[in-house]
Design goal:
Layout lengths: L3 E8 L5 E6 L2 H14 L5 H10 L4 E9 L5 H17 L30 H7 L6 H10 L7 H17 L13 H11 L6 H15 L10 E4 L5 E4 L2 H8 L3 H8 L10 E2 L4
């Protein structure tokens, strides 16, 4: 059975609520529920509360039943009465707008017909949220305000994170690939072969990042042979094949995990 009227979505833990109206309340509730479950609800405050407290801590209540034959205009007038109450107790509501859809009706049918906006409201509509006088009042109200150590720590952490992000031009900075994106990237790499020169460049880049104190002049490795002779080369794999050395062992030496392999020692480290 179709029910028309005014409804509330109430948080059972703190009493905060969202108020709205609908010609078909059951259908409207289904839409709210779908959006909240998907995390795409138009009301950000209600969505955050839903995510935090979960569905079990919310009640959907019909606070006023109205005739099914009611017109939208009449429905909006009734909703506005409830929104006027909500406006007086903003701290108890999730509503961000306190104008019923009837606010969009033309001329004398609009609830706002004949009313004049305050200078402050006009400034807000122009994009100026605070006058100099208001800013001065806020400034004076904050004089002598003591911030707790916990709050200071949070502010400090926020500033550190912000500072770390400055100057980072990589659009993926502090972002993570989804599993789907990872699979797509992996598929593009399958069957792709890198030249020895490219592999060597990649290896050197990783080493420089891992060991900042590693000196690589012109991207050359510098090793000392068992006889004490200095040897320079670019490609570790080719060098190991030529000298019949174990690549894994030499790699450990190059990474600083081992001091030598068959008396071959890395001389790049300072």
């Amino acid at each position: 059975m179709i029910v028309s009227g005014i409804y509330k979505i109430i948080n059972k833990l703190n009493g905060k609520y969202y108020v709205g109206s609908a010609v078909n309340i059951d259908r409207r509730w289904s839409r709210h529920l779908y959006s909240l479950k998907k995390g795409i609800h138009h009301n950000n405050h209600l969505q955050k509360a839903w995510n935090k407290y979960t569905k079990n801590n919310f009640d959907f209540v019909i606070v006023q039943k109205l005739p099914i034959s009611i017109s939208k205009k009449e429905l909006f007038i009734e909703e506005q009465k409830w929104l006027d109450i909500s406006f007086k107790e903003k701290e108890k509501t999730y509503n961000t707008s306190f104008l019923a859809a009837g606010g969009g009706l033309p001329g004398k049918e609009s609830w706002n017909y004949g009313k004049k906006r305050s200078e402050e409201s006009k400034l807000k509509l122009r994009g100026i949220s605070r006058t100099d006088e208001v800013k001065q009042k806020i400034s004076l109200s904050l004089l002598g305000h003591n911030v707790s150590n916990e709050c200071k720590e949070k502010i400090s952490k926020t500033r550190i994170v912000k500072k770390l992000s400055e100057g980072k031009n990589n659009f993926m900075f502090r972002k993570h690939h989804s599993d789907e994106s990872k699979d797509k990237i992996r598929l593009t790499k399958i069957g792709k072969c890198y030249s020895d020169e490219t592999k060597n460049k990649m290896s050197l880049a990783r080493m420089k990042k891992r060991f900042p104190n590693l000196l690589l002049e012109d991207n050359f490795w510098k090793f000392t042979s068992p006889e004490g002779i200095f040897v320079e080369f670019k490609n570790l794999s080719s060098f190991c094949k030529e000298k019949k050395l174990d690549k894994g062992a030499m790699s450990k030496v190059s990474q600083g995990k081992a001091t030598h392999h068959k008396n071959w020692r890395l001389t790049n480290l300072v």
